[in-house]
Design goal:
- The chain has 567 residues and is an alpha/beta fold.
- The chain folds into three domains: 10-181, 3-Layer(aba) Sandwich (Rossmann fold); 202-355, TPP-binding domain (Rossmann fold), CATH 3.40.50.1220; 376-558, 3-Layer(aba) Sandwich (Rossmann fold).
- Helices cover 37% and strands 16% of the residues.
- The protein has helices at residues 21-31, 46-52, 65-79, 91-94, 97-106, 132-136, 152-163, 177-181, 202-214, 229-241, 275-282, 298-301, 333-340, 351-373, 381-391, 404-412, 433-443, 455-461, 465-471, 486-496, 509-515, 529-538; strands spanning 36-39, 58-61, 83-87, 110-116, 142-145, 170-176, 218-222, 246-249, 264-268, 285-289, 309-313, 327-330, 396-400, 421-422, 448-454, 475-481, 519-523, 543-548.
- The strands form three sheets. A six-stranded parallel beta sheet has the order 2-1-3-4-6-5, with helices on both faces. A six-stranded parallel beta sheet has the order 9-8-7-10-11-12, with helices on both faces. Strands 14-13-15-16-18-17 form a six-stranded parallel beta sheet, with helices on both faces.
- Helix 1 (21-31) runs parallel beside helix 7, helix 10 runs parallel beside helix 13 and helix 14 (351-373) crosses helix 15.
- It is globular.
- The N and C termini lie far apart (72 Å).
Length: 567
């Protein structure tokens, strides 16, 4: 008789103490300086989780893989080093793409690791079989499966290189179960200490300087890569040595210092109806720094305009009808600006720029005075921003979700520290704020983290409140409540004179917070904003703060827009 064969046990496939593929994965993460991974376990990835247990890396179990990718993206944005998300095969991996697409579009370095069936089973109808590389390839810079024990370190190294490049983004690596449990056939690859671009070519720098020096009213236009700390430092130096006006996209927040704020026209994006748009329109040459068209389409701010554009970035421009640069300065943004600055001779602001900046400064002063005086209930967005501006000291990280409230924040709440104000603008993804705040408490443990969402976006990732409680994350999450997907509703009302599909029911956020072991607070009057936020920041662990908001003025966000702005 032939004995019945026992069910295969992956743990028994290698001798006790034998180094496995999972060991190579974990050792590679350690060699890259990874301190945390975020994810949800499962059978096809459990060998990696097992080896993480004995490593220097802290495993943070999340309540949804999408949120794990969001947290990893927040880590990447604040550190410049890839955050790590990890998921099992099938639905574990298919829950990652929203977070990966967000990171890739926003320029946040992330490496996602996904479990997979054994290589020999990849084409069979087993549970959780999925072409995970095919799912992730369109939304990442790099996606590959490790199909040989000898390739583990190579594929992981390629993923990190792609994610952490000068224009960062997301990468995905599929880890088949048999390669993770099988004997290792490679070692982690030692990476060069000196990696990165230098400044742009000298000939390009000279031509850019010639165009800027000969222009009547040049304007600097900052984009998302301008807010990287090294880029922001170089921008500060550039603005101190040249008299140039500057505007920025929402994601360029923090790239302009408080010292240079008088020459900052404000933020532009989504809707071309801001005072800063007038300043941008006035330029006879535009110098874009770290700009990506996904932030603010050239067809909105440069339609049919023949003025020269100088594109300064880590990657070449995506050429469009309304964005065809005369000169491209391709290289490390900080080093390029350091090389360009001494070549520029701009002794004073152009008269038109100076007049526009004067009007913008007067308008800001008037608006903030009006905001501070608003005393109605529900609370007006500008009153909230007036109070938030007072607490936005350099030791506070603000993480914004997407919605009508984010339009108010991005236009009127100013920050002067790179990567202090985190927003989503490329994919405009709901649910990022709380996961990003969790990331902020890890990266900046001695600082304050304030995340803000609408009552619609909050419940997209509210289950991670349990993760925040488990980590004892010292964060405050503020919920602006109105009972609608208001940004969608406002645009529907403009286009169709009615709304559809934007209403939902109430949630008691104090009880919700308490159910998770967090603290819940309410703001019921404008005068309660400051003391409630002080109490929230003084309370240990996560705190939810709910406030009902008066959005009747939201239609003003969409007034006088360029054709096609309302989507």
């Amino acid at each position: 008789m032939t004995a019945t064969q026992p069910t295969a046990n992956p743990r028994a496939d290698t001798a006790q103490g034998t180094r496995t593929g999972a060991d190579v994965v974990v050792e590679t993460l350690e060699a890259r300086g990874v301190t945390h991974v975020f994810g949800v376990p499962g059978a096809k990835i459990d060998k990696v989780f097992d080896r993480l247990r004995d490593s220097s890396i802290k495993t943070v179990v999340c309540r949804h893989e999408q949120n794990a990718a969001f947290i990893a993206g927040g880590i990447g944005r604040m550190t410049g080093k890839a955050g790590i998300a990890i998921a099992t095969s099938g639905p574990g991996v298919s829950n990652l793409p929203t977070g990966l697409a967000t990171a890739n579009t926003e320029g946040d370095p992330v490496v996602a690791l996904g479990g997979a069936p054994a290589v020999a089973d990849r084409l069979k109808s087993h549970h959780q079989t999925l072409d995970s590389v095919g799912v992730c390839r369109p939304i990442t810079k790099y996606a590959a499966e490790i199909d040989s024990p000898a390739a583990t370190a190579e594929v992981l190294s390629a993923a990190f290189r792609a994610a952490e490049a000068e224009r960062p983004g997301a990468a995905f690596v599929s880890l088949p179960m048999d390669i993770m449990t099988g004997a290792a056939q490679c070692e982690p690859i030692r990476l060069s200490t000196f990696v990165g671009q230098g400044p742009a070519a000298k000939s390009s720098l000279a031509e850019a300087a010639r165009l800027i020096n000969s222009a009547k009213s040049p304007v600097i236009f900052l984009g998302l890569m301008a807010s990287k700390p090294r880029s922001a430092e170089a921008i500060h130096d550039l603005l101190r040595t040249t008299a140039l006006p500057v505007v920025g996209t929402f994601q360029a927040a923090g790239a302009v210092s408080q010292e240079d704020f008088p020459r900052f026209g404000g933020r532009v994006g989504q809707l071309a109806n801001q005072p800063a748009d007038a300043l941008l329109d006035s330029g006879d040459i535009v110098i874009t720094i770290g700009y990506d068209a996904v932030e603010y389409w050239p067809s909105l701010w440069n339609k049919h305009n023949k003025r020269p554009i100088i594109h300064i970035g880590a990657t070449p421009a995506n050429i469009e009808n309304d964005y065809s640069p005369a000169v491209e300065l391709i290289g490390n943004i900080g080093e390029t600006l350091d090389a360009l600055s001494p070549l520029l001779h701009r002794p004073g602001l152009a008269a038109e720029s100076a007049e526009l900046l004067h009007l913008i400064a007067q308008d800001r002063k008037r608006l903030m005075a009006e905001a501070a005086a608003k005393s109605g209930v529900p609370v007006h967005p500008l009153r909230l921003i007036s109070e938030l501006q007072k607490i936005l000291t350099p030791d506070v990280t603000v993480c914004s979700d997407m919605g009508s409230f984010s339009m108010w924040l991005c236009r009127y709440l100013f920050s002067f520290r790179a990567r202090q104000f985190l927003i989503t603008n490329g994919q405009q993804t709901l649910g990022v704020a709380l996961p990003w705040a969790i990331a902020a408490t890890i990266v900046r443990p001695h600082e304050k983290a304030l995340s803000i969402s609408g009552d619609g976006g909050f419940l997209f990732s509210a289950n991670e409140l349990e993760t925040a409680v488990r980590l004892n994350s010292h964060l405050v999450h503020m919920i602006w409540i109105d009972g609608h997907y208001d940004m969608v509703g406002t645009q529907e009302q403009i286009k169709y004179n009615r709304t559809s599909g934007v209403d939902f029911g109430p949630v008691d956020y104090v009880k919700y917070a308490e159910a998770f072991g967090a603290t819940g607070l309410r703001i019921q009057q404008p005068d309660e904003i400051a003391p409630t936020l002080r109490k929230a920041f003084d309370t240990a662990g996560p705190v939810l703060v709910g406030v009902h908001v008066d959005y009747r003025d939201n239609v003003k966000l969409f007034e006088d827009v360029h054709e096609g702005s309302v989507l």
